[in-house]
Design brief:
Blueprint (H helix, E strand, L loop, with lengths): L2 H15 L5 H4 L7 E5 L24 E2 L2 E4 L4 E9 L9 E10 L4 E6 L23 E5 L3 E8 L5 E9 L4 E4 H4 L17 E4 L3 E10 L2 E10 L4 E5 L12 E4 L4 E8 L2 H4 L11 E9 L4 E5 L12 E4 L5 E7 L6 E9 L4 E4 L11 E2 L2 E5 L2 E10 L5 E11 L18 H29 L27
Antiparallel strand pairs: 1-26, 2-4, 3-4, 4-5, 5-6, 7-8, 8-9, 9-10, 11-12, 12-13, 13-14, 15-16, 16-17, 17-18, 19-20, 20-21, 21-22, 23-25, 24-25, 25-26
Helix pairs in contact: 1-5
This protein binds 2-acetamido-2-deoxy-beta-D-glucopyranose (NAG) (5 copies).
One 2-acetamido-2-deoxy-beta-D-glucopyranose binds next to loops.
Length: 468
């Protein structure tokens, strides 16, 4: 008998003979998908600093409201926030240190110390963005980071744009890069806690707190092609808001969830964290036609602000934690949004081993695993503290539960077998195709590594500036 027929016969017999697999077989609810990685469960911890080559782990101090950006290489860059640096202080302060977490080694490395300069010997003070929280950050792997806005220690909202060049390990304000004066630079108005998206060739921001009592709903984009800001006029925008979550899909659709419509309570210092006018709307901005639309969903996560979010490799959008109003306002739940069907699912989590309720953390997805770091919430003893614990989240296999129902029943062993065979076959096909194309065209994909056309001149090592 030909091989294909044998395969078909085996497949059919499996598909038709087996009863459906029980849900516990496919979705293991016994263990927690969360795993503690590093940091302290005590809260209010200073940074631990070690020399770059040292074996001993460095850890950023406890903090909230940091800016974070991750890339496909598994590097997560963490900037500032409000919390603790290496010097132990009674009260937390605003920070401007820069860290990178490596998903391969699961270790933190400090790139820029909090304060003025990494180079303590130097008599010249190097430029570094003011300490801040609630800033927006984005980057290009191996080339640069872009930092915009935030709120500084004196309560001012910031509108400065900074470029950190990764190869030279140095910060430079954008207007100096363009050799123009501060006043000539075009940029979004000062703001903090805006929605932001980091796309392949640009960063897009939306709304945020733009004055002590004002919020925005404008959209701006920063192009990495020419390193410049441009306002983007989009039709039917949501009401002005801040402090929610944002994701992009692979098709230039930008999604947002939740946030606050009250600037005054949104940026109150913690200790008085009672937000109001929270919402639980899900919106999409299509860059292809520059128009907003509110997505109708059957149910959605409770209204909240300062939640954490990431996108997985399947394009699902994840939401965890955050700050709501009322009793038990600091949240610990985990949700998943499927953009294709506009459906929210609440994930069932075993609470015996999961990050405590918290908000203003940073989360990212790298090397098939999600991570969440820090924020303000409950420490191991149940006291409110700033945190510096790092957790990873293992994605559940196949489908997960929505509230009160399960799709798992639809998966019979035969179907799973078929899916496995189909994926194996496609992998074989792709490999074959790549192999043939390589033979024929001499690495036709090589050109894709120069997709970025960034007009950026590396700074000279000795370049230095006086603080103004
Ligand atoms: C939660 O996890 C713990 C240990 O990881 C386990 O002992 C317990 O049975 C789990 N609970 C449920 C409801 O699965
Ligand atoms: C992350 O770790 C890998 C493996 O040790 C290393 O090759 C890579 O350079 C590291 N990245 C950074 C940014 O240090
Ligand atoms: C800083 O100064 C000390 C003592 O003068 C010297 O040993 C060290 O190499 C200097 N470090 C740098 C980075 O210049
Ligand atoms: C814009 O495009 C999106 C999908 O890309 C679509 O859902 C939406 O209806 C479009 N809006 C308008 C006003 O054409
Ligand atoms: C979240 O907190 C509630 C109590 O507020 C608790 O009952 C629940 O088990 C927690 N869930 C997780 C995943 O930690």
């Amino acid at each position: 008998m030909p091989l294909e027929l044998i395969f078909l016969a085996v497949t059919l017999s499996i598909v038709t003979s087996q009863p459906p697999i029980s849900s516990s077989y496919l979705f293991d609810t016994k263990g927690s998908p969360w795993a503690f990685q590093s940091g302290s469960k005590l809260g209010n911890q200073p940074s631990h600093l070690q020399a770059r080559a040292s074996d001993v782990d460095s850890t950023p101090g406890s903090r909230e409201g940091s800016a974070g950006w991750s890339n496909s290489a598994g590097h997560f860059y963490l900037f500032g926030g409000k919390g603790y640096d290496a010097e132990s202080t009674e009260t937390p302060r605003y920070l401007n240190d820069l860290w990178v977490h490596n998903a391969t080694t699961q270790k933190w490395v400090m790139l820029k110390e909090n304060g003025v300069s990494q180079d303590k010997n130097s008599s010249v003070k190097r430029m570094q963005p003011k300490p801040r929280k609630g800033a927006m950050i984005c980057g290009i792997e191996g080339v640069l980071l872009l930092l915009f806005g935030g709120q500084s220690a004196d309560g001012y909202l910031l509108s400065d744009t900074w470029i950190y060049t990764i190869p030279t390990d140095s910060w430079l304000p954008l207007y100096i890069h363009h050799k123009i004066s501060k006043d000539q630079a075009i940029h979004p108005s000062a703001r903090t806690a805006a929605f932001s998206w980091c796309l392949r060739d640009r960063m897009v921001i939306h709304g945020g707190v733009v004055s002590p009592s004002g919020l925005g709903n404008d959209v701006w984009e920063f192009s990495f092609q020419n390193l410049a800001w441009k306002e983007l006029v989009a039709s039917s925008p949501p009401l002005s808001h801040c402090c929610g979550s944002s994701w992009s899909d692979y098709h230039e659709n930008l999604f947002i969830f939740g946030g606050s419509r009250d600037a005054a309570t949104a940026v109150k210092e913690y200790g008085d964290y009672s937000p109001s006018h929270l919402h639980h709307e899900t919106w999409m901005l299509s860059l292809s036609n520059s128009s907003w639309s509110q997505l109708k969903t059957d149910f959605s996560p409770p209204a909240r602000q300062f939640c954490s979010h990431w996108r997985d490799t399947k394009g699902n959008l994840w939401l965890t934690h955050g700050l709501s109003s009322g009793k038990n306002k600091i949240l610990n739940d985990t949700w998943k949004f499927v953009p294709a069907t506009h459906t929210w699912f609440e994930m069932s989590i075993n609470s015996s081993n999961a990050p405590s309720a918290r908000f203003h953390s940073v989360a990212w997805f790298a090397k098939d695993t999600a991570h969440i770091f820090g924020g303000f919430g409950y420490n191991g003893r149940g006291q409110m503290s700033l945190l510096n614990d790092l957790w990873s989240y293992r994605l559940p296999s196949l489908l997960a539960f929505s509230k009160g129902e399960s799709f798992i029943e639809h998966f019979t062993p035969g179907l799973v077998f078929l899916i496995t065979m189909a994926s194996t076959a496609s992998v074989v096909c792709v490999f074959g195709l790549v192999f043939c194309m390589k033979k024929t065209f001499e690495y036709p994909f090589r050109a894709s590594s120069t997709a970025y056309n960034v007009r950026y001149t590396p700074l000279k090592e000795e370049t230095s500036f006086e603080f103004s």
